[in-house]
Sequence to fold (465 residues):
Amino acid sequence: MHGAFTENDLSHVIAADKAHVWHHLVQHKPFETSDPRIIVEGKGMRVWDQNGKEWLDAVSGAVWTVNVGYGRESIAKAIYDQLMKVNYFAQAAGSIPGAIYAEKLIEKMPGMSRVYYVSSGSEANEKAFKMIRQIAHKKYGGVKTKILYRDRDYHGSTIAALSAGGQHERNAQYGPFAPDFISVPHCMEYRKHELGLEHLSGREFGIAAANLIEDVILREGPETVGALCLEPVTAGGGVITPPEGYWERVQEICKKYDILLHIDEVVCGVGRTGKWFGYQHYGIKPDFVTMAKGVASGYAAIACMVTTEEVFDMFKDDASDPMNYFRDISTFGGCTAGPAAALENMRIIEDENLLENCTIMGERMMKNLHALKEKHTVIGDVRGKGLFLGLELVTDRDTRDPVDEALAQKVVSEAGNHGVLIGVTNRSVPDRNNTLCFSPALIITAEDVDQITDAVDKALTTVFG
Ligand SMILES: Cc1ncc(COP(=O)(O)O)c(C=O)c1O
Fold:
């Protein structure tokens, strides 16, 4: 056992967990006869569970979060030092790490200028939605309130974030939802037949997929559409990289109809794709950028909603009107541990050249995954950017029918038998929980990459022959 707990300590921990903890996104019935996994310790790329079993974590804390790896003493120390100075004061006032982190973050985001601190990705997205609605009231007579979201994208777990959610297995049974959230089609080339665009490919497909958004805007009436909210690369919906030409056209459409562009970087943000932000691969000029998971790599709960000076100005243009500002507060947006951790997280990424490592190791992993595709016919598509990759599993490469999700989950558990934690799209899009997901920490080495893809190779052989 790597850690400090004794056998006895842990049997009590497991009993307490089974008696009282409600785990996230998990059916608990199996825990009546088996134990939940309890992660006891982490170091670098690896974690240890209650049985002392070592796991190479290919998914950064299961949900693409721990970008700089586990056991970072310097982040723990930065948090400790800040907490001993002052742990909290409501964000109506400022803090030293809050000001310095905002300055450093904005240096990485040309064109953006204001940071609003909150404590989760869902919350960051809600803040943008509220601003968009308030702008509709201030500037457009309360008419331009609709927020477009894309099929297969996810923006969080709260009711408003689910209202903007394109994953029906996350949404089902939680309605009724908030009004004026309107869905637009996905842009996945591998499944272009679902869009009626099977005759197009490459750039032509990308532009046509973006034009499907324009069709929705015209159907709804451009004067009613306030914003378009998109993930730069769709995460839990299947690791969907955008087709060539797509983003350029999306930007044009937003400009044409005076629609604000909200990019959800909760997963892609802070290095995951090899640039600071996913949108920076595509030359996009967003109006809102939200980020969470990698901001402090899970060492503290911090998320940010970042916007432009132009948007910010709209909320202070008439100081004589007591309603003319953003009347919103997030209690834990004032926790100083968040920006203190985020500052050190950013220093680590810069000093250790982790963006470069992400690109190089991402290319190696992509190459390995393509080699697996040569060998395993069950792999229909390989997608990804940087260290954010997916393998879509199908029963037949021609029909592209998805494998049974139980089999995709079996691959995950078989990879676990080889000591590697991988992910799979989970209660996401009906009949599409068939994409294996990889998002290792940005510190990954070539040996770790090969260990992950070797484990996937063995797991695929065990499950599919
Ligand atoms: C793209 C995206 N946006 C938003 C969220 C919600 O973030 P949180 O769970 O921190 O509320 C997630 C969570 O997985 C996500 O993947």
In short: The longest strand covers residues 379-385. The chain has a mean pLDDT of 97. Residues 354-375 form the longest helix (22 residues). The chain has two domains: 7-66+353-464, 74-351.
